């Protein structure tokens, strides 16, 4: 049995405290600076528009949206979506431009058009976005582990039986970040605490008579509305937490006497396979809901897979680090070099898989250069350029070079270094997925954000190691246990 | 393998696990194993035989780098220097700014060079080429049998070695004193 050492427990509590202080500070400070910062940021945006290559687009769009603004006010606006507008080139152009750079896009909107309000919202969003970035990252660690565990059972895998208890413990963590995400969703829906992370939740945005009306977002009302959105979140979280709980419960039957272990294992196979079907759908839809819907006008068909890749590689890395920690403490004697080597191969392979998906999404959008798609990357190539390329180096170049050789995949120092970099790199990846759409140019990556991340690391350590200490680390009656202990390459 | 006049004792096995433990026992006795023939790769056999680690990984890395360099010079020469084309308004006079469009080429040529040159290196190092004489002493090792070649000599008589091999589970043991290619 694993004993959760009091030293590690203390560390986890300290980390949780740091996280709590960071979150508390971000909310307290969140409302403070609006008035001072408005002017400054508005100027920054103007400069931006003047200097960037895309300034022309941006200027056009500004003028167009002025035009449309006027329409709004004279209530001619709904005509935009009808066919009774004159079929002139001019109108086509206007229509295209308004689709390209929507008037309430956070970046290329006209400076005059309720911009001050947007910047105000963006600053109010900062603590919420920070919470969303970190809770989604933490969710990825647990959910990726649950997916990996379900694969092990569905495919009746032999080699991995000795690490299943670690995966179970990781999967038991899902409810914690899940709860935080649920809070973010509900506060957004009911406009509590200045949460405007999801722009489509804004009041009047689906109402043609409101000055906030956005025809494109209104067109998505059937899917993007508070009630259905919350219901979906409940279904996802219920399914994931339920599957993690069931797999854990059935796995604990391997510890009881008088159970038909082979039959239990076969049942777990069915559950694992069923969960994978559920996960195939919900991993995509949850990524659309919780992340892609922040940039409401934009969509990418690859987005679910891209987020899944981030999730899976982060979870494999966390798994590896927990296994290394436990081995370092003298536990998991059955885990040999070949197991470690294989998990490191997973880290290496799925870093490349992530890059492949990231690039597939990027290149098609970059190449076709369609305004309505490319706004997503324009936002990320502006203020976020440094982060964007750092993230690519951390998530692709670093793992591929450090983990390429066989010896490196068997060396704890190499694996650990690569692991820290991969985990942080994917944290940055999620940061870049969420921040441009919710806080725009008002982002900061400082002590508060890192502190919140550490807080979630503390929660993760606390919940996962607590779960680990509650059952034997080896399911010795698992039908594949013996095969797994003999695993070699 | 250089041509040799050593006496070789062949032991035929019909199970890879038995073969693996046989290899370990034979080496524990201080005997030298010249070669093992198997219809499929047996996990852990290379380690049990005490073979040197392969250097093909280093070669693969170098081949991949060569492929990448080829792709970069190819795209630069063709698409930037020799014949810049305006494709979708992409910056056609700068390799760096047009780089994302070339990534598929860079990726494919890296893989192509690494994979193909690795295979050719493997063939070359193992003297497998069209018209090469088969080194396989018993054609059944291409079906479902495994054959271990033990170098006779030293402190052990041929009879001792053959008895040992029988003991390890070999189904057939024979002395092959013919010149071995």
From TrEMBL, chain B:
Q: Which domain of life is it from?
A: Bacteria
UniProt keyword annotation of Transmembrane helix present: yes
Q: Which InterPro entries match?
A: ActD
**Mind telling me which residue stretches traverse the membrane in this protein?**
56-81, 101-123
Q: Which UniProt keywords apply?
A: Membrane, Transmembrane, Transmembrane helix
**UniProt xrefs under PANTHER family:** LIPOPROTEIN-RELATED, QUINOL:CYTOCHROME C OXIDOREDUCTASE MEMBRANE PROTEIN
This chain belongs to which protein, by name?
DUF3341 domain-containing protein
Organism encoding this protein? Croceimicrobium hydrocarbonivorans
């Amino acid at each position: 049995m694993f004993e959760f050492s009091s030293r590690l427990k203390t560390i986890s509590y300290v980390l949780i405290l740091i996280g709590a202080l960071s979150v508390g500070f971000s909310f307290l400070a969140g409302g403070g600076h609006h008035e001072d910062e408005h002017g400054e940021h508005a100027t920054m945006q103007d400069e931006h528009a003047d200097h960037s290559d895309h300034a022309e687009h941006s200027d056009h769009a500004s003028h167009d949206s002025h035009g449309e603004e006027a329409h709004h006010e004279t209530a001619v606006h709904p005509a935009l979506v009808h066919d009774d507008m004159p079929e002139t080139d001019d109108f086509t152009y206007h229509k295209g431009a308004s689709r390209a750079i929507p008037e309430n896009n956070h970046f290329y909107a006209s400076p005059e058009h309720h911009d001050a309000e947007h910047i105000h919202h963006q600053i109010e969003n900062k603590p919420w976005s920070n919470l969303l970035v970190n809770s989604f990252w933490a969710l990825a660690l647990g959910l990726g582990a649950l997916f990996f565990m379900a694969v092990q059972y569905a495919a009746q895998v032999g080699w991995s039986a000795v690490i299943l208890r670690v995966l179970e413990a990781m999967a038991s963590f899902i409810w914690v970040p899940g709860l935080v995400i649920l809070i973010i969703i509900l506060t957004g829906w009911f406009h509590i605490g200045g949460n405007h992370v999801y722009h489509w939740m804004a009041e009047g945005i689906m109402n043609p008579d409101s000055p906030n009306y956005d025809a494109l977002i209104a067109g998505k009302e059937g899917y993007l509305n508070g009630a259905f959105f919350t219901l979906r979140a409940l279904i996802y979280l219920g399914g994931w937490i339920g599957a993690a709980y069931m797999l854990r419960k059935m796995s604990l039957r391997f510890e009881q006497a008088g159970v038909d272990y082979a039959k239990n294992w076969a049942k777990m196979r069915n559950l694992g396979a069923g969960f994978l079907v559920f996960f195939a759908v919900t991993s995509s839809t949850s990524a659309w809901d919780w992340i892609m819907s922040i940039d409401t006008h934009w969509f990418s068909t690859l987005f679910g897979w891209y987020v899944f890749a981030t999730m899976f590689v982060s979870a494999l890395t966390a798994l590896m680090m927990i296994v290394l920690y436990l081995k370092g403490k003298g536990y998991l004697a059955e885990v040999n070099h070949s197991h470690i080597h294989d998990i490191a191969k997973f880290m290496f392979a799925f870093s490349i898989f992530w890059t492949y998906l990231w690039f597939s999404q990027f290149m098609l959008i970059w190449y076709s250069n369609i305004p309505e798609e490319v706004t997503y990357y324009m936002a990320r190539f502006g203020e976020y350029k440094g982060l964007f390329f750092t993230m690519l180096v951390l998530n692709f170049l670093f793992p591929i070079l450090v983990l390429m050789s066989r010896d490196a995949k068997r060396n704890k120092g190499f694996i650990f270094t690569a692991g820290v970099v991969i985990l942080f790199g994917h944290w940055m990846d999620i940061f870049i997925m969420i921040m441009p759409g919710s806080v725009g140019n008002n982002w900061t990556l400082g002590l508060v954000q890192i502190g919140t991340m550490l807080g979630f690391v503390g929660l993760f350590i606390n919940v996962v190691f607590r779960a680990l200490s509650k059952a034997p680390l080896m399911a010795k009656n698992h039908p594949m246990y013996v095969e797994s202990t003999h695993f070699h390459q | 393998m250089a041509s040799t006049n050593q006496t070789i004792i062949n032991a035929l096995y019909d199970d890879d696990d038995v073969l693996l433990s046989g290899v370990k026992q034979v080496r524990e006795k201080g005997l030298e194993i010249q070669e093992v023939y198997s219809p499929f790769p047996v996990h852990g056999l290379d380690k049990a035989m005490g073979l040197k680690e392969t250097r093909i990984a280093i070669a693969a890395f170098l081949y991949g780098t060569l492929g990448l360099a080829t792709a970069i010079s190819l795209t630069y020469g063709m698409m930037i220097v020799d014949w810049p084309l305006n494709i979708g308004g992409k910056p056609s006079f700068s390799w760096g700014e047009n780089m994302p469009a070339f990534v598929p080429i860079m990726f494919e040529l890296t893989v192509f060079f690494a994979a193909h040159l690795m295979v050719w290196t493997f063939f070359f190092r193992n003297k497998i080429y069209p018209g090469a004489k088969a080194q396989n002493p018993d054609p059944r090792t291409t079906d479902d049998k495994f054959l271990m070649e033990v170098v006779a000599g030293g402190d052990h008589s041929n009879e001792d070695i053959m008895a040992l091999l029988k003991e390890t589970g070999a189904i057939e043991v024979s002395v092959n004193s013919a010149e071995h290619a």
